[in-house]
Design goal:
globular
Length: 474
């Protein structure tokens, strides 16, 4: 009955979307190539003109991606991420105690991944933690005090899980966040500010990080009260970093300016009110994408480290060092193109009407909508990339909200957050794949801890979004 109500354009789009979803799940083609293929197919099938199909590839959020990628590379190139990691791990409070080491690793991963790619965070922290484990093994050979092998499993899982969770804290923490925000802005007409997102994302991250530490500490106990060798290893590695370099100062300055420009308009909005001329000017002239580009451009202006060979001062970042993940950019553009067309052709509305019939009526419908959006996003993210999950699920959830006659924003945000909660399989996220490749994380251990953390995340995101539904978020 639904198919009969579809226009020819919507029918063609439905076939294309189904094919794209299959290719995303099976990864028969690289994900960005599949996204481009879907956009090209829409033009060839007459779903919409080329100018309309490819418009999302120039969406303002594309430039937020680009600026964030360049900033993250500047931080990585100059070692600011390692300085933060070893700085926290060397705190006297840690003191070589297993639970505290687990907590410190989780906090460091979450803080770094809030601003840098989850995958890059995991790769860096994986190297650091493997060094710590080697130091623990060497100390155990000398003292005979050896932790249980399962502790290494728990510490490596902590790196993967905490890196994925930390990306939820800010809009730029992980690509699914920006993808969801793009759909929310374009289809619901709601602009979620940097501070507005953090007001929801940070509490979710705090609860999830606490749950991760408690869960892994329980499932993977060390069996000893203190681990000798960790403090010495961290102290030695931190000493090797030396004093702050000019490149690190410049990268920190560019990052601080960017964060200030992200947060400043929201603070001024609260202080002066939305109708004040300064507030209106900032809202119109300084979106998050422009702020990210300003910070990125500063890296090409501020000085880097003086070269010993010729005594010259290069810039903090050269263009050849400014690596941008164009695959993510293209995947975002293709996914947004398909999602936007789903609304303009009426396909999303028809899907929403069909699924709405399965939801309960009355006040329970809003709760069910949030829960369904969260559940579907979590399940989808276990078997395909988080980015593809957001592209597939968020538009359908928005259409469901519109068809049910309620506020679709909480359900759309729930699906956006939940798209990053794939913890159970090595293929769920690159973070999981990196630590699984160490050989010290059995699949059974990852699945057992992952499914429990999935359930916890499902409950936390649903509960927080129900609060958002009550108090509102604009």
């Amino acid at each position: 009955m639904m198919v009969a109500a579809l226009t020819p354009e919507a029918t063609s789009l439905a076939v294309i979307v189904a094919a794209v979803v299959v290719l995303w799940i099976t990864e028969a083609l690289p994900l960005p190539v599949t996204a481009l293929l879907g956009a090209v197919a829409c033009v060839l099938a007459g779903v919409a003109p080329a100018a309309e199909v490819f418009r999302p590839f120039a969406d303002p959020l594309i430039f937020l991606f680009i600026g964030a990628f360049i900033l993250a590379e500047g931080i990585r190139v100059h070692g600011l991420d390692r300085r933060l990691a070893y700085g926290v791990l060397s705190l006297p409070w840690v003191d070589g105690r297993p639970r505290r080491i687990l907590t410190a690793v989780a906090v460091v991963c979450a803080c770094i991944s809030a601003f840098i790619s989850n995958t890059c965070t995991t790769a860096m922290m994986f190297t650091i933690v493997m060094g710590m484990l080697a130091a623990i093994d060497e100390a155990a050979d000398a003292t005979g005090q050896r932790p249980a092998p399962v502790f290494a499993t728990g510490l490596l899982l902590c790196v993967a899980f905490a890196s994925s969770v930390g990306g939820l804290a800010t809009p730029i923490g992980t690509p699914p966040n920006l993808i969801g925000l793009g759909f929310i802005r374009n289809q619901l007409g709601v602009e979620v500010s940097f501070l507005g997102w953090c007001a929801v994302g940070v509490p979710i991250v705090v609860v999830m990080i606490a749950a991760t530490v408690i869960l892994l500490g329980t499932l993977c106990p060390a069996g000893v009260t203190r681990l000798d060798g960790v403090a010495d290893h961290v102290r030695a590695e931190r000493a090797r970093l030396g004093p702050w370099t000019w490149g690190q100062r410049s990268a920190a300055c560019a990052f601080a300016v960017t964060v200030g420009l992200w947060m400043g308009p929201g603070i001024i909005l609260v202080v002066l009110g939305p109708e004040h001329p300064v507030s209106r000017w900032l809202q119109a002239r300084l979106p998050e994408g422009v702020a990210a580009l300003i910070g990125a451009i500063l890296l090409f202006v501020l000085p880097g480290d003086r070269r010993a060979t010729d005594g010259r001062w290069p810039r903090a970042l050269g263009w050849q060092e400014a690596r941008i993940d164009w695959g993510i950019v293209l995947l975002y553009g293709g996914g947004m193109a398909l999602g936007t067309l789903a609304f303009t052709t009426g396909l999303a509305a028809e899907i929403g009407v069909a699924i709405t019939g399965w939801l309960p009526t009355g006040p329970a419908r809003a709760t069910a909508l949030v829960a369904v959006g969260t559940l579907v996003a979590v399940l989808t993210s276990e078997f395909t990339s988080n980015t593809a999950s957001a592209n597939m699920v968020v538009p359908v959830v928005i259409a469901l909200g519109a068809a049910s006659g309620g506020d679709a924003l909480p359900a759309a945000l729930a699906a956006t957050f939940a798209a990053s909660l794939g913890f159970m399989m090595p293929v769920s996220t690159p973070c999981n794949a990196i630590v699984y490749g160490s050989g010290r994380v059995p699949l059974a251990a990852m699945m057992r801890a992952g499914v429990l953390l999935d359930l916890i995340g499902l409950g936390v995101v649903t509960a927080v979004m129900l609060v958002v539904a009550r108090i509102g978020m604009r």
